[in-house]
Amino acid sequence: xxxxxxxxxxxxxxxxxxxxxxxxxxxxxxxxxxxxxxxxxxxxxxxxxxxxxxxxxxxxxxxxxxxxxxxxxxxxxxxxxxxxxxxxxxxxxxxxxxxxxxxxxxxxxxxxxxxxxxxxxxxxxxxxxxxxxxxxxxxxxxxxxxxxxxxxxxxxxxxxxxxxxxxxxxxxxxxxxxxxxxxxxxxxxxxxxxxxxxxxxxxxxxxxxxxxxxxxxxxxxxxxxxxxxxxxxxxxxxxxxxxxxxxxxxxxxxxxxxxxxxxxxxxxxxxxxxxxxxxxxxxxxxxxxxxxxxxxxxxxxxxxxxxxxxxxxxx
Length: 315
Ligand SMILES: NC(=O)c1ccc[n+]([C@@H]2O[C@H](COP(=O)([O-])OP(=O)(O)OC[C@H]3O[C@@H](n4cnc5c(N)ncnc54)[C@H](O)[C@@H]3O)[C@@H](O)[C@H]2O)c1
What we know:
There is one protein chain. This protein has helices spanning 11-22, 55-61, 77-82, 84-105, 138-157, 182-191, 211-223, 241-252, 276-282, 290-303, 305-314, and strands at residues 2-6, 26-31, 46-49, 67-70, 109-115, 162-166, 168-170, 196-199, 205-206, 208-210, 229-233, 239-240, 258-261. With 315 residues, it is α/β, with parallel strands linked by helices. A seven-stranded parallel β-sheet has the order 3-2-1-4-5-6-11, sandwiched between helices. It has a two-stranded parallel ribbon with strand order 7-10. Helix 1 (11-22) packs across helix 7 and helix 6 packs parallel to helix 8 (241-252). The structure holds nicotinamide-adenine-dinucleotide. Nicotinamide-adenine-dinucleotide binds at residues 7, 9-13, 31-36, 51-53, 71-75, 90, 94, 113, 115, 166, 168-169, 181.
């Protein structure tokens, strides 16, 4: 099979590309390198550098492709609150551009990377697919619109699009970024002996799912006949941010120094995925326990050349 992976130079996309190549498939990566890294590009992949909202370039990249894994996005609540127009341009128009390319090239399935951000504040626990969708940030709104667009193409054009709503993903190739996720930020600060900033009281909970499980889910969803529609994707376990920090401190061999600040706007209090629908439709079962995944992640980060070069520059 020939796969087009948008956002394939990013954190999750690069892990997916590695899996697809490993399974013997041909891969084209489309990415503008705005938050991805050329260092993440696997040898042997065809690379198209362009904006995913540029319909003509996306259509050209989709020629001869059997499936699209659409990961390119403006990612995260904080970035979206600061740049709401760009957020929607990339996440909504970019998704439409991918869907139109798929339609015109006769590609039957787009697997969209969606987000648990579409749900907003938790109303029931765990969060199943039918949880109310009431996003707390422009990012949640744009991801929800992207999902709805994929699902409407199923209805109108008989496509088999799949939307995977990731909870908090972590693992190899996830680097510190100003708008970033808590695990790379904590890991970096602990490994550099700096204090750890916790938003609010640290008792908020998150469902952290390892990137190896997420890319396996993409592969299963992309290749299973029964997969169609929207599915929640997490580890089905949750941990408080304080407990996460203690666990990471132990793995880093440090006693972390915490500083608590005000809660961050756009952040939800609790999060936990119900994953039964993904298990039933395409056999998804998470396989990487948090502690194991964190150990693996911290040893990768200690040797990551991009991160080490940035640390040297900051000194
Ligand atoms: N990391 C998480 O915890 C998480 C959680 C929920 C959903 N997601 C979704 O998973 C996907 C991948 O996220 P990630 O964590 O790997 O982030 P990432 O920033 O590492 O990857 C996004 C990639 O898209 C590329 N990109 C951004 N804008 C683009 C544009 N206009 N045109 C072409 N390429 C563009 C970036 O350069 C980057 O390589 C995203 O769709 C994101 O919304 C991630």
